[in-house]
Amino acid sequence: MTATPLVTLENVDKHFGELHVLRGINLAVERGEVVVVIGPSGSGKSTLCRTINRLETIDSGVITIDGVPLPEEGRGLARLRSDVGMVFQSFNLFAHKTVLQNVTIGPIKVRKKGKADAEKRALELLDRVGIANQANKYPAQLSGGQQQRVAIARALAMEPKVLMFDEPTSALDPEMVQEVLDVMTSLASEGMTMIVVTHEMGFARRAANRVVFMADGEIVEQASPDDFFDNPSSQRAKDFLSKIL
Ligand code: ADP
Ligand code: MG
């Protein structure tokens, strides 16, 4: 018996009005796999991420999480959505809550965890991302890199089956990019299933099992990082790589 992929998209289409942003997307992400999604601005990468946890609806096709099709709404949707963690470019922390409260609020409110349990786990996770000593500060008192690490700890606190990152380092000052990539690399090596939209090609080469190249709402090609970067097969990928590498 082969294991079901953790996330699948089958023939997924999505329009924004006249704009056809996702065109017949087929993708299967295996357990423990790290898939890096790259492509030009406007190619549909963020929309793809947002459809996977139903921040956006789709027009047609099927998305499954751990073998279960994403329902349109209701309790089933809330449960499946909490299986999918998301880390955004713009941290999205609660400004009026401490770091610790940012990490415990989901487990307490959504997972119905006790406060003491949630705090114990949160401190472990903050330690894992290297900022346990900042637990009682407010987000504004932290650097961008630290805030993004809090956002990762917050996502992990929900015990997601898959973690999605949408350009998690794009809003950071250059000197803070590496500390966030290091946390992501260690999660990847620990077997976390991850879908990562990024322009950090070094990270893609080192940490990805597979690179998915999107352009104009389509998956144009996908390959191992070495194959993709050394020998892209499509002209669009060649053009894209020649601009960024
Ligand atoms: P990427 O993340 O690859 O840059 P996006 O998924 O953000 O691409 O956007 C894909 C296309 O969809 C772009 O042309 C963008 O302007 C458009 N788009 C994204 N979100 C919306 C929205 N909420 N309403 C209308 N158009 C949108
Ligand atoms: Mg985007």
TrEMBL record:
EC number assigned by the record: 7.4.2.1
Enzyme class: translocase
Sequence similarity: Belongs to the ABC transporter superfamily.
SMART domains: AAA
Annotated Gene3D superfamilies: P-loop containing nucleotide triphosphate hydrolases
MF (Gene Ontology): ATP binding; ATP hydrolysis activity; ATPase-coupled polar amino acid-transporter activity
Predominant cellular place of this UniProt entry's protein: membrane
Keywords from the UniProt entry: Amino-acid transport, ATP-binding, Cell membrane, Hydrolase, Membrane, Nucleotide-binding, Transport
One cellular component (GO) term of this entry: plasma membrane
Pfam families (alphabetical): ABC_tran
Coiled coil: none
PANTHER family listed in its UniProt record: AMINO ACID IMPORT ATP-BINDING PROTEIN (PTHR43166), GLUTAMATE_ASPARTATE IMPORT ATP-BINDING PROTEIN GLTL (PTHR43166:SF9)
Matching InterPro entries: AAA+_ATPase, ABC_ATPase_HisP-typ, ABC_transporter-like_ATP-bd, ABC_transporter-like_CS, MetN_ABC_transporter-like, P-loop_NTPase
Catalysed reactions listed for this entry: a polar amino acid(out) + ATP + H2O = a polar amino acid(in) + ADP + phosphate + H(+)
Membrane topology qualifier: Peripheral membrane protein
Organism domain of life: Bacteria
Localisation per UniProt entry: Cell membrane
Protein name according to UniProt: ABC-type polar-amino-acid transporter
Organism (species): Nocardiopsis composta
Domain ABC transporter: from-to ranges: 7-241
